[in-house]
Amino acid sequence: MKYNSIVWDYNGTIIDDAWVAVEAENVVLREHGNPEIDMEFYLRECEMPIRLFYDKIYDFSKCDFREVADSFLENYDRIAPNAKPFPEVCEVIRRFSSLGIRQGVISGFETGRLVSSLKKFGLDGYFEFMSGADDVNCGSKSERAAAVVSKYGYEPVSTLFVGDMYHDYETASFVGADCVLIAKGHQGASVLRSYDGVTVLDSALQLPLLVEK
How many whole angstroms separate alpha carbon 122 and alpha carbon 7? Predict the structure, then answer.
C-alpha cells in the first residue's frame, strides 16, 4: 500500500450537501434583504474559512457574523435530513476498511453535528476518530488536524487526506501529508484545478488506484 491511513473531510466529500448549503444560505440572504446565490456562484466563490466567503455576500457593517452563521446552521439542520452520502464514497470507505487501512474524519463541521450525521448513515464504525470544530465559525482546521494525526499515530508520509476544497489541501500540507480533492463538493472542478500542485479526481472510485499501489 502506498498509504496505510486515510483522513477524510466530511461536508462535500462524504456527504453530498453543497445543495443544502445553497438552499440554507439563500434563506438567510433573503432574511437580510440580500440577493440569492445559485450553485454556479457558490461553487466558484465558496472558500474556507467561511468568513472569507461570507464577506462576499454579506455587509457586516449591517449585520452580525455570528447571527448569520447561527441562522445558516439552523436552516442547514432543517434541510439536511434530505442529504445523503455519496454512494461511491461509502463503497470506498468500506473497501479501505476491509483492507485494514486506518481511517479518520477531520471536518470544519461542528463536532456534534459531525458525529450525529455519521452515526445516522452507519458510517461512524469505520473511523478511528471523528474530529469536528468546537464552534460555528468553520475556521482553519490545520492545527487541529496536526494534533489529531499525531495523537493517533498517523505517519504523514503514509497518510492521504481526501477533501473537496482547497483548504483540505492546505490542511494536508500543514500536516506534511499528501492530499487529493474530489470535484463533487463545495468548490467546482475548474476552481480546484486552478491551484498548482493539487491532484483533483472526478470520483472517489479513482481513490483505490492511488492508495493501493
Answer: 18
Number of domains in the chain: 2
pLDDT digits (tens, 9 = 90+) for 65-90: 999 999 999 999 999 999 999 999 99
- Say if pTM beats, i.e. exceeds, 0.90: yes
CATH of the domain at 96: 3.40.50.1000
* 139 neighbors 116 (Cβ within 8 angstroms): no
Last residue of a domain, one of 66, 82, 98: 82
Single out the residue in 82, 98, 122 at which a domain terminates: 82
Domain extent for 65 = 18-82
Sheet architecture: strand order including 130-133: 130-133, 102-110, 5-8, 159-163, 178-182, 199-201
- Residues 69 and 150 placed together within one structural domain of the fold: no
Q: Is the dihedral of CA 91, 96, 100, 102 positive or negative?
A: negative
Q: How far is residue 99's CA from residue 6's CA, in Å, rounded to a whole number?
A: 12
Measured CA to CA, the distance from residue 208 to residue 96 in angstroms comes to 8
C-alpha cell at 77: 439542520
